[in-house]
Amino acid sequence: MARYTGPKAKISRRFNEPILGESKALQKKNYAPGQHGKTKKRKQSEYATQLAEKQKAKYIYGVLERQFAHTFDKATRKKGVTGEVLLQLLEARLDNTVYRLGIAPTRRAARQLVIHKHILVNGDVVNIPSFSLRAGDKVGVREKSKSLEAITNSLSIGSAKKYPWLEWDGSEMEGKVINLPVRGDIPENINEQLIVELYSK
Questions:
Q1: Which of 94, 95, 136, 151 could be 131's S-S partner, Cβ–Cβ 3.0 to 4.6 Å?
Q2: How many Cβ atoms are within 10 Å of 4's Cβ, its own excluded?
Q3: 8-33+45-88+189-199 adopts what CATH topology?
Q4: Which residues 6+ apart lie within 8 Å of 75 measured at CB?
């Protein structure tokens, strides 16, 4: 299962946002990485701006190029605004939903839990991070994994935030997808229209 394994701080500094989680590097070095990071930036071309937005979305959701392009293609074939549908599909990924429910503190950690078969979908073990959830699906922790330190720690620190499209039952360690999120329910700082314009070229 391919994924980005490079330096996280470098990505955060490139976009000046905690793309892959909180980073002290942003506080110490609030400029782009590299020897020219401190110099004044040239005005980016339209294409460069669109490409950067796509790259940012890929890093946030932990998706590589081919999979991202496949997701976009899928979004274009569904009803609705393509950009919003794209974000809905990314949010509906199993690893992202495990993260949103607070079972894991980061998407990377959520991906690991899924791959190592700690997560159930509708009562069955699913170990595919990109598994696409639908309204009504239930996502829970496998019985023998409920005492796993990584999971209990994440839940105890309250890393879960309330999302109107998700429901969480702490006693059962199980969440439910009520419906796919609308754009207002997705907190990520992504300009999805730029991504649509990029793929439309």
A1: 94
A2: 14
A3: Ribosomal Protein S4 Delta 41; Chain A, domain 1 (1.10.1050)
A4: 82, 83, 85, 86, 88, 89
Class of domain 93-179: alpha beta
- Number of separate helices (H) and strands (E) present in the chain: 9, 5
What tokens were used for 144?
């023998």
Bridge partner residues of 138 (DSSP):
176
Secondary structure (DSSP) of 131-183: PBP-TT-EEEE-GGGTT-HHHHHHHHTT-----TTEEEETTTTEEEE-SPPPG
Spatial strand order of the sheet with 166-169 comes to 124-125, 119-121, 138-141, 174-177, 166-169
Q: How far is CA 74 from CA 4, 70, 81, 122, 154, in A?
A: 22, 6, 12, 24, 32
Q: What is the pLDDT of residues 57-74, one digit of tens each?
A: 999 999 999 999 999 999
| Reported pTM | 0.83
Residue 27: enclosing H or E segment and its boundaries?
Answer: helix 25-28
Backbone dihedral angles phi then psi of residue 82, each to the nearest 5 degrees: -55, -45
Q: Domain boundaries in the chain?
A: 8-33+45-88+189-199, 93-179
Q: How confident is the model at residue 126 (pLDDT cuts 50, 70, 90)?
A: very high
- Give tens-digit pLDDT for 77-123: 999 999 999 999 999 999 999 999 999 999 999 999 999 999 999 99
Query: Rounded CA gap, 50 and 83, in Å?
Result: 13
